[in-house]
């Protein structure tokens, strides 16, 4: 998926999560979730975040260990250890949203890499018309939900 689809999905996930968690700073919660949703692609030297740290793509294969359940759990535990519990949840929401929506692409993801070779994959090719439709639907939901919160 493209970065904008990841951000739109992370925004949706963070808005829904915030409804139940009532973070003290909604803006910070959403910002952390949306920013962290871009982190898994740091292993792709052509991604929005990866092009600034190209050496990471030499260390990690794209859609390898950084596209598993282990980094979001690690981030969550780190934030909790530092007593930033709600930011830990925001990081977990954002990172997990990235992995979940990448599972809908033909390349898919392996949630438990390197312990298994089982991949979950879908039918939405990155950068295609179908992804644009998905982005527009997610954005529409985001706008609707934000308006519902404000009004």
Taken in chain order, the helices and strands follow as HHHHHH
**Mind telling me the C-alpha Rg?**
15 Å
Number of helices: 6
Beta fraction? under 5%
Q: How would the global form be characterised?
A: globular
Distance between the termini: 32 Å
Would you mind describing this structure in some detail?
By secondary structure, this protein is mainly alpha-helical. It has one domain (3-139). Helices cover 57% and strands 0% of the residues. It has helices at 3-21, 26-36, 56-59, 70-81, 85-102, 129-150. α1 runs antiparallel to α2 and α1 crosses α5 (85-102). The longest helix is centred in the last third of the chain and has 22 residues, at 129-150.
Write the layout of secondary structure elements.
Blueprint: H1 3-21, H2 26-36, H3 56-59, H4 70-81, H5 85-102, H6 129-150
Descriptors:
151 residues, mainly alpha, 6 helices
Brief rundown of the structure:
By secondary structure, the protein is mostly helical. It has helices at 3-21, 26-36, 56-59, 70-81, 85-102, 129-150.
